[in-house]
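Bumping my old thread because nobody answered last time. Still need a sequence for this structure:
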């Protein structure tokens, strides 16, 4: 999946969703598709589904496969935290509908700041969307970088 397709998918599914729970669940699925596209740089795309890997295992696999000169520890930590939040949302009802302190904390850590108006619904939603856009950009960029490195290595092997 190309970067533009990833962002189109993100826009189509998240911008039309008002409920934060659905934004998180759909955003997680979109990021998993991005992660699959990234892993496809090392694993045949038709083989990946046969491995039956959950999101957390895909992250571990990506971490193990990345180039040593790449430093993505913060992003991987944030993706792990999102997975934890997603699992919690899928298996536990929040004490107040639409309120998830973990989601707010996660989104603010991804974007790098906490707006003064974070408790306003519109601001909260906007920060969560920004977090998904940033992580989609990260995974998309990592996939492009992996493809470039792979192509360069292939050229060297052929002697060009």
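Sorry it took so long. Here it is:
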């Amino acid at each position: 999946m190309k970067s533009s397709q990833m962002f189109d998918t993100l826009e189509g599914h998240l911008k039309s969703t008002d409920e934060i729970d659905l934004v998180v669940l759909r955003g997680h699925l979109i990021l998993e598709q991005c992660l699959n596209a990234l892993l496809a740089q090392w694993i045949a795309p038709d083989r990946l589904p046969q491995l039956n890997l959950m999101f957390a295992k895909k992250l571990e696999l990506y971490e193990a496969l990345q180039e040593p000169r790449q430093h993505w520890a913060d992003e991987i930590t944030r993706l792990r935290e999102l997975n934890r939040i997603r699992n919690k949302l899928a298996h536990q009802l929040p004490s107040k509908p639409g309120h998830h302190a973990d989601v707010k904390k996660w989104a603010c850590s991804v974007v790098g700041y906490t707006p003064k108006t974070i408790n306003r619904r519109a601001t909260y939603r906007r920060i969560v969307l920004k977090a998904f856009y940033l992580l989609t950009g990260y995974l998309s960029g990592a996939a492009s970088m992996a493809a470039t490195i792979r192509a360069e290595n292939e050229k060297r092997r052929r002697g060009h």
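The two ends are 28 Å apart (CA to CA). Let me know if any region looks off to you.
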